[in-house]
Amino acid sequence: PKERYDGQFDENVFVLRAKEEDILYNYFDSPRMKYKRFKTLLIDYISDVPGLDDIEFIYYMDIDSMFGSSFAELARDLDEKYGTESGTQPLPTIYMFRGTQTSKFPLNSGFIVMNRFTSKPCLDKWREEMDQHPDA
Question: What is the pTM of this model?
Answer without folding.
Answer: 0.71
